[in-house]
Specification:
Blueprint (H helix, E strand, L loop, with lengths): L3 H18 L11 E15 H6 L4 E3 L5 E4 L3 E6 L10 E10 L2 E8 L4 E19 L5 E14 L2 E11 L4 E7 L3 E4 L13 E8 L5 E23 L2 E11 L7 H5 L1 E3 L2 E9 L6 E11 L7 E2 L8 E5 L4 E7 L5 H6 L4 E10 L5 E5 L3 E11 L1 E4 L2 E8 L4 H8 L1 E12 L3 E10 L5 E4 L14 E3 L3 E2 L5 E3 L1 E8 L2 H7 L4 E10 L5 E2 L5 E14 L1
Antiparallel strand pairs: 1-35, 2-3, 3-23, 4-23, 5-13, 6-12, 7-10, 7-11, 7-13, 8-9, 8-11, 8-12, 13-22, 14-21, 15-24, 16-20, 16-23, 17-18, 17-19, 17-21, 24-34, 25-33, 26-32, 26-35, 27-28, 27-29, 27-33, 30-31
Length: 520
């Protein structure tokens, strides 16, 4: 018992001594530790359909494939251009004045024109007579084929005049609103087509006098309708120009595309009856505003072609990459496209008829479809980064950070992806696309393989890539100044193969950061 007490006493006393030795802090101390913050930077899906909806020149077909078109370029030529000196006719004669009365016939014609019938809107009859006699003569002329309705009667075109001795007269008479039909009893019949003029000369002289010279000209004819035969003649060179919408926002993309299916639809028509029309030297020309030399669409290697339009028909001709240089023309992205041709009426010298309502039309339309090759087409998108103030404050307290960039490629193309941040003044801060994550100045591109493609050239399975990027000290110092992010895609056909692009194809880019900051 004496031994136990000395041992227990120190053991009992020890806790109290230990407590007494601990120094009580004068102020409380706040603990600190490091925390990782996930910061969403940006996520966006770029679909072909979204891009197409912004373009009037691209439509989505029921198959979800695409159709690229230009505006239709159309030129219409009406009959206002048909009335020229091609229809001018003339006749002249000279004969001695014999006795007090003499009758004669003249045919005002032109070798290249046979006018069977016509409705004349306007025109002129000019005549000149020279009386070489010492006595005056009176003359009258009747045009049996030219008539018009005047009230309730039918008037025949007539002329009468007096020609003094040894003098001449020259008169122009309008011939408006007359109809013409060749009389069945016209002298010489069909062997000498033209306008029949019946003349009569009277005088007081009873012997054989000197010659009377007579010349008629029928000119400046404009018709409401015409039937007969007329020589081939051109109506002039006609052009029509439209802006090329494919050279706008789509210019860089179109420059990089080679279409497997591209067509030029040439539509021509005429309402002439009996008369064919020739578009001589038809051309499609691309023009540039900056003065660059124009580019010509080639037809089997030639920069023009002749197109025959049968009388009264509409003809559609579809030209392709097999017989034209459509791909080269489209890729050249001219600012405007012009069609041009010289219109030749009745090139085969046939009989026919026309009216003032008739016209000649020709138009061109470019179309291309989704099956294509692409080489280095560039698409750029800029989006604002929306961070609240609390996130910005935590970024400013960060120790270090990294970025994860996830790319899902649902396109049938390889992609070179470049992404970088901008501050609010649009100054470039740093790239967040680094293939090696080395941070070297040239390390700015991520190469992404195309989606898996089936044997038709269509996307079957998208590919996914993730790049983890540790920010350098310099990058991190700029990170809380990020205002916007720029995504730039350069796309090319894998192994230069032809693929089919669909409205459902897409690229998705997701960028998020992990910030390590200290909580105190």
């Amino acid at each position: 018992m004496k031994l136990i007490l000395p041992i227990l006493f120190p053991l009992i006393l020890l806790p109290f001594l230990f407590i007494a030795c601990i120094e009580t802090p004068k102020q409380p101390v706040t603990p600190s530790w490091d925390v990782e913050l996930n910061v969403p930077v940006g996520s966006k899906t770029f679909t072909i359909e979204d891009i197409v909806k912004k373009q009037d020149q691209i439509t989505i077909l029921p198959t979800r494939t695409l159709k690229f078109v230009t505006d239709t370029i159309q030129q219409d030529t009406t009959l206002d251009f048909l009335f020229n000196n091609t229809f001018d006719m003339e006749a002249d004669t000279s004969f001695p004045v014999v006795g007090t009365s003499i009758e004669f016939n003249m045919i005002a014609g032109r070798d290249s024109v046979r006018m069977d019938s016509a409705e004349i809107q306007s025109g002129d009859v000019k005549y000149r007579m020279v009386n070489n006699n010492s006595f005056a003569v009176s003359v009258s002329f009747v045009f049996p084929g030219l008539t018009r309705v005047n009230g309730g009667t039918i008037d025949t075109f007539k002329i009468s005049a007096n020609v003094p001795a040894n003098q001449s007269v020259q008169v122009t008479i309008p011939m408006n609103n007359y109809k013409y039909k060749q009389p069945p009893n016209q002298p010489f019949g069909s062997t000498r087509p033209g306008v029949w003029i019946k003349g009569k000369v009277g005088s007081s002289f009873t012997g054989v006098g000197q010659n009377l010279e007579v010349k008629f000209q029928i000119e400046n004819l404009k018709f409401r309708s015409f039937s007969g035969r007329v020589k081939p003649f051109d109506l002039g060179t006609k052009t029509q120009t439209v802006e090329n919408a494919l050279s706008g926002e789509l210019k860089d993309f179109i420059n990089a595309v080679t279409f497997a299916q591209a067509y030029l639809t040439l539509t021509t028509s005429t309402t002439f009856r009996g008369y064919d029309v020739l578009l001589k030297g038809f051309q499609v020309i691309g023009k540039y505003k900056n003065g660059t030399s124009p580019i010509y669409l080639l037809f089997n290697g030639n920069n023009s072609k002749d197109v025959l339009i049968p009388a009264g028909q509409t003809v559609t001709e579809v030209l392709s990459t097999l017989n034209t240089s459509i791909n080269q023309f489209i890729k050249a992205t001219p600012d405007s496209i012009q069609i041009r041709a010289t219109i030749v009426m009745n090139p085969q010298y046939k009989s026919g008829s026309i009216s003032s309502f008739d016209k000649v039309s020709f138009s061109a339309l470019f179309e291309a479809y989704s099956q294509m090759k692409i080489e280095n087409a560039t698409i750029t998108d800029t989006a604002e980064v929306d961070w609240d103030q609390d996130t910005k404050d935590k970024i400013s307290q960060g120790n270090d950070a990294r970025l994860d960039v996830e790319i899902t490629n649902g396109l049938p193309f390889d992609i070179q992806f470049v992404g970088y941040f901008l501050d609010k003044n649009k100054n470039k801060l740093f790239y967040y696309t680094r293939q090696t994550s080395s941070g070297s100045p040239g390390d700015t591109v991520i190469n992404i393989s195309s989606a898996s493609i089936n044997n038709l050239g269509e996307v079957s399975v998208p590919t996914k890539s993730t790049i983890k990027l540790s920010l350098t000290k310099t990058d991190f110092e700029k990170f809380n100044r990020v205002y916007a992010m720029v995504n730039r895609f350069k796309i090319s056909s894998a192994q230069n193969q032809t693929v089919i692009i669909s409205a459902d194809n897409y690229v998705k880019v997701k960028v998020f950061g992990k910030i390590n900051y200290r909580v105190k």
